[in-house]
TrEMBL record:
One family name in Pfam for this protein: CetZ_C
Gene3D superfamilies tied to this protein: Tubulin/FtsZ, C-terminal domain, Tubulin/FtsZ, GTPase domain
UniProt protein name: Tubulin-like protein CetZ
A GO molecular function held by the record: GTP binding
Chain's gene name: cetZ
Lineage per the UniProt record: Archaea, Methanobacteriati, Methanobacteriota, Stenosarchaea group, Halobacteria
Stored PROSITE patterns: TUBULIN (PS00227)
Length: 388
């Protein structure tokens, strides 16, 4: 499907930057346009792939290009004020080619956390295309302010988009990794999963057309349940003709190969669903689902996808599970992407909200105490007078 990507804040901009790289790497064709919005000049300069004329600085009058310092109310306020600056950039998007907008932001900071919901709301009042969000949840150890920001932004963002796709940094961290290296790896995981899904609706005329190629309308229908979505992905290297299943084609019967490919695809769908999701949840709470089989066309086995799809129907109890192929002739992996939409049983969100409520209460108590303590510090019991 053709997307206009809008990265809001530092994390949003970096992920959009990586989406651009991934799209050209796989020849995906899902990025119709890409814009980065930020309150910090330095963050915009740090981007590599978003064209310079698609970078928008907001809030200059209030923060002078220095960011909002994790104040997401300020992030929201400056976005409201400067919405025309962003609209000016969106005006250049060839919207007649567009299937949807995707607004990407880290929810723990200030700029993206506050600005992304404001922009989503604005876009939905103007355009007929769906506006999706991709929200990145902070790791738990980032601290109270990030958790509180994320919980409040999540609540607002999910209300203002047609569907909120979520990626939880906490689940994807590795111990012993520097923050920078960690984000580079995590961002790759993000764009691989979401990128494959979006590219799957973009099979061009020159590509090999498989038996049942996923269409962008199937992605849109799956996401039209609204609410929150998560993605699972599993893949297996099939190598080139020297190893993997291809080599087992030679010297074995077609029946055996067919059965092998069917089993492989069915188990990839299960692995994708039961393995690490971008946002862990109870799969049974999903409202809709989409199974996409990716890889060289000869491995995209219809029976395998169908069995995987039926299995997901049983797991979710939903009748709205779609399935299809994304053939990639030059790929050495065969994989399954599983999109679960409208999930409602998400312990991580409840945990985030609980910690946020505690953080809010603690902040209020600390502030009240600080005021009393400061008054006590300055007060001399009437012994001394201030100058004026
Ligand atoms: N996945 C991912 N998450 C990131 C990355 N950088 C930051 N984050 C997360 O995003 C949250 C918000 O950080 P930023 O995007 O830097 O904040 P901002 O929107 O620019 O807002 P301010 O810096 O407060 O103006 C953090 O709490 C992290 O959890 C990144 O490169 N990848």
């Amino acid at each position: 499907m053709k997307l206009a990507l809008i990265g809001f804040g530092q994390a949003g901009g970096k992920v959009v930057d990586q989406f651009l790289a991934y799209d050209s790497e796989i020849g995906g064709g899902f990025v119709e346009d890409a814009i980065a919005v930020n309150t910090a000049t330095a963050d915009l300069h740090g981007l590599e792939n978003v064209p310079e004329d698609r970078r928008v600085l907001v809030g200059q009058a209030r923060v002078n290009g220095h960011g909002v310092g994790a104040d997401n109310e300020l992030g929201a306020a400056v976005t409201e004020t400067d919405i025309d600056e962003i609209q000016h950039a969106v005006d250049q998007v060839p919207t007649h080619e567009l299937d949807a907008f995707l607004v990407v932001a880290g929810l723990g900071g200030g700029t993206g956390s506050g600005g992304a919901p404001v922009l989503a709301k604005h876009l939905r009042t103007i355009y007929t295309q769906p506006v999706y969000g991709l929200g990145l949840l902070p790791a738990m150890d980032e601290g109270g302010i990030y958790t509180l920001n994320a919980a409040r932004s999540f609540q607002t963002f999910v209300r203002e988009v047609d569907n909120l796709l979520v990626f939880d940094n906490d689940v994807w961290r590795s111990t012993g990794e520097s923050v920078g290296d960690g984000y580079d790896r995590i961002n790759r995981e993000i764009v691989e999963r979401f990128g494959l899904l979006f590219a799957s609706g973009e099979v061009s005329d020159g590509d090999v057309v498989a038996e049942s190629v996923v269409d962008s309308s199937e992605i849109i229908n799956t996401l039209s349940s609204g609410g929150v979505s998560t993605i699972g992905y599993a893949s297996e290297s099939v190598g080139t003709s020297g190893d993997g299943l291809l080599s087992s084609f030679t010297g074995s019967t077609d029946d055996f190969d067919e059965g092998n490919a069917t089993n492989r695809m069915t188990s990839l769908v299960r692995k994708a669903t039961l393995g690490r999701l971008t946002l862990p949840c109870d799969v049974g709470s999903a409202d809709r689902g989409l199974v996409v089989a990716t890889g060289p066309p000869e491995y995209l086995n219809r029976k395998g996808v169908e069995r995987g799809r039926q299995w997901l129907e049983d797991e979710t109890g939903s009748m709205e599970i779609r399935g299809g192929d994304y053939p990639r002739a030059d790929d050495t992996d065969v994989g399954a992407v599983v999109l679960l939409s409208g999930v409602t049983d998400v312990p991580r969100v409840k945990q985030l909200q609980q910690v946020a409520v505690e953080a809010k209460e603690t902040t209020a108590t600390v502030q009240a105490n600080a005021e009393d303590e400061f008054a006590a510090l300055v007060d001399t019991g009437g012994e001394l007078d201030a100058l004026f």
